[in-house]
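Field reference: sequence -> structure
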Amino acid sequence: MYRKILVALENSRADASIVPHVTELARRLGSELLLVHVADGWAARHYDELKLAESTEMKEDRAYLESVAAQLRASGLTVAVELVLGNPPTEILKAAAAQGCDLIAMTSHGHKLVGDFFLGSTIDKVRHNTSVPILVVRANAAGPAVTDRPAAGA
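Structure field:
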């Protein structure tokens, strides 16, 4: 049913909520996983136009993606990673289309209307601009990190 699942990772504890779901789904369906993180700091958003060097944030994000992918590969799954730069909803949609993903998996933080207004809602923007099904898992703030190392900014 779902041959390739894009998993939007935040490099935060929220990822511990989505990874078990997509791991089990991929295992049961024989799906490939595409782990995507959108670096959206100043350096990432201006990387190409200003021909900047890769920032520490970008290096940490790439290492994080590879670490999660290694854990999933060790459990027998087929996993690719992609670090993209820019606006999260835009880049998630572009990656899903370019890679032929037929499911997008994301975490929700449960913001209410006011929180979404000020913080923006990546999920809302993605769901309004794709025909690909979306799996949304509520982030558990108290959950453990996906990897043994602390998440960036923690």
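Note: Helices lie at 15-29, 42-45, 56-74, 88-99, 113-119, 122-127.
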